[in-house]
Amino acid sequence: MSFLFSDWKLGKDIGILIFRLTFSLVLLYGHGFEKLTTVFSGQEIQFMDPIGIGSTFSFYLATFAEGVCAMLLALGLFTRMATIILIGNFLVIFSFHAFMVGDGFMILEPRIFYLASYVALFFTGGGAFSIDSMMLNKGK
After folding, report:
1. Residue 15 is part of which domain span?
2. Residue 17 is assigned to a structural domain of this protein
3. Comparing C-alpha atoms, which of 51, 82, 77, 72 is closest to residue 130?
4. Measured between alpha carbons, how far is 7 from 14 in angstroms, rounded to an integer?
5. Distance of CA 135 to CAs 46, 70, 139, Å?
6. Which of 28, 57, 64, 95 is deepest in the core (most CB within 10 A)?
7. From the CA atom positions of the chain, what is the Rg in Å?
8. How far, in Å, CA of 65 to CA of 47, rounded?
9. Number of domains, the chain
10. 8 A C-beta contact, residue 100 and residue 50
11. What is the reported pTM?
């Protein structure tokens, strides 16, 4: 019974891996792949301009965050850098839906989960099962 209250390093790293993979791959599948496909297909980009930088540039920033950074996060490569970009992306998304559009909690709820998950991953890092960890421990 004491194992429930003891510090289990491997368990923490497995938990971080599951958490990291879940929130990166769901974002990549649900939003990133579609945006990346649009970029490489040459289709006309129709996107909102929530921060006044133009809809095309806004789309490219969102694509980088939800496509490229989600892939980096899944790999555990440049984890903290990727989470900083994803946090910024979801702050814009949350602000847009909460204050500009006035969406209710049902629309805001998944954005809150994504935002909180990336903040948590910023603090934990990628864990032992990440490329970051392998590169950091290579010289040891």
Report:
1. 11-46+53-135
2. yes
3. 77
4. 13
5. 39, 19, 8
6. 28
7. 17
8. 15
9. 1
10. yes
11. 0.90
With a CB cutoff of 8 Å and minimum separation 6, the contacts of 132 are 76, 77, 78, 79, 125, 126
Residue pair 39/60 in contact by the 8 Å Cβ criterion: yes
d(CA 99, CA 108): 11
> Does 89 reside within a domain?
yes
Q: Which two tokens stand for residue 67?
A: 């496509």
pLDDT digits (tens, 9 = 90+) for 80-90: 999 999 999 99
101, part of any domain: yes
Q: Counting every residue, how long is the chain?
A: 140
Amino acid at residue number 122:
F
Q: What are 132's two structure tokens?
A: 């970051």
